[in-house]
């Protein structure tokens, strides 16, 4: 009996340790991704947006490929999945970071971080439209609240102003969110075939390949950049894209998807606070209200019956 109790106690202790480690991994991940908006905003002031994405993912893809070959040496990409994998890389890496990096030349890191919180809502809406997923009345209310909040977060003052660079930058962030949501839907066809690490590695590689010719359009802006910009590129590549995603995959394997989605909501809060503290950015009251509406609606939807797996924002 004593032996059984000792084993049970050891098992419980191990499980608690694993949960704590997974929660810590998730907290580190959202912190890295929240700070990434500040890092991009700083780097893009010296490095053109597509070139920045190219440099970031050349480094990140190399690291991810080494890790993948070490952990999954026998996993191969099936020829019939090659086309979809390339398209997913284009939407999830090339197009997403073209929109996001370009947007951060025009808008603030705080606004960008706030608007990215709509990803789960866009993904859920697309899931409803494409896969005809059934939703409850409460879920519909949650989506409407989130869209209203997104309008406030994007416009900042409740009015559409296409002459404003900030407003255009905010719209580009929405474009990035749409691109990522399409990427999420494309990845549904890979469920059960490949691990998250394998998908991220090869989609990053294909996305990087697309970035090479696109970066040539920015050659007139190429010049030597500062050590600060270089440090931010390394942080984005190693910290956010390689380490961040590796920790995220680990956390997903140990925690319920609802918990990880709620953690991801912290990313926007960290981004907003970071923009205010480090870049002295101003966040408007309407945007705070909009952000609160979006996050509240996501919590509402996550505690209902709509499946949330793979709808979370796993921003690399």
Give descriptors for this structure:
316 residues; disordered C terminus; globular; mainly alpha
Give the arrangement of secondary structure elements:
Elements: H1 2-43, H2 49-71, H3 82-106, H4 109-115, H5 119-131, H6 137-155, H7 165-187, H8 196-215, H9 227-254, H10 257-279, H11 285-302
Helix pairs in contact: 1-4, 1-9, 1-10, 2-3, 2-8, 2-9, 3-7, 3-8, 4-10, 5-7, 6-11, 10-11
Question: Concise description?
Answer:
The protein contains eleven helices and no strands. The longest helix is centred in the first third of the chain and has 42 residues, at about 1-45. The chain has about 325 residues and is mainly alpha-helical.
| Distance N to C terminus | 49 Å
Query: Which secondary-structure class do the elements indicate?
Result: mainly alpha
**Nearest-integer average pLDDT:** 84
Extract low-pLDDT stretches. Answer: 305-314
Q: What count of helical segments does DSSP give?
A: 11
Share of helix among residues?
over 70%
């Amino acid at each position: 009996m004593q032996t059984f109790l000792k084993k049970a106690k050891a098992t419980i202790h191990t499980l608690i340790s694993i949960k704590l480690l997974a929660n810590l991994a998730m907290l580190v991940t959202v912190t890295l991704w929240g700070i990434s908006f500040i890092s991009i905003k700083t780097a893009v002031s010296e490095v053109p947006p597509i070139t920045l994405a190219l440099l970031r993912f050349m480094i990140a893809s190399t690291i991810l490929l080494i890790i993948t070959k070490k952990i999954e040496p026998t996993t191969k990409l099936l020829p019939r999945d090659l086309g979809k994998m390339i398209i997913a890389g284009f939407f999830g890496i090339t197009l997403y970071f073209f929109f996001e990096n370009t947007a951060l030349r025009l808008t603030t890191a705080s606004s960008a971080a706030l608007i990215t919180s709509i990803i789960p809502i866009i993904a859920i809406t697309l899931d409803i439209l494409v896969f005809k997923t059934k939703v409850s009345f409460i879920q519909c209310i949650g989506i409407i609240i989130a869209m209203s909040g997104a309008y406030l977060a994007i416009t900042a003052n409740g009015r559409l102003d296409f002459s404003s660079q900030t407003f255009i930058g905010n719209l580009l962030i929405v474009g990035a969110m749409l691109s990522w949501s399409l990427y999420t839907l494309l990845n549904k066809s890979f469920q059960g075939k490949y691990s998250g690490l394998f998908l991220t590695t090869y989609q990053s590689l294909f996305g990087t390949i697309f970035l090479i010719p696109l970066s040539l359009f920015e050659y007139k802006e190429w010049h030597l950049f500062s050590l600060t910009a270089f440090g931010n590129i390394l942080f984005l590549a190693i910290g956010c894209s390689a380490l961040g995603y590796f920790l995220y995959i680990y956390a997903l394997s140990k925690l319920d998807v609802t918990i990880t989605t709620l953690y991801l909501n912290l990313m926007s809060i960290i981004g907003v606070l970071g923009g205010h503290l480090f870049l002295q950015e101003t966040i408007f009251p309407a945007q705070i209200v909009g952000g609160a509406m979006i996050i509240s609606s996501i919590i509402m939807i996550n505690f209902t019956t709509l499946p949330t797996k793979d709808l979370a924002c796993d921003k690399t």
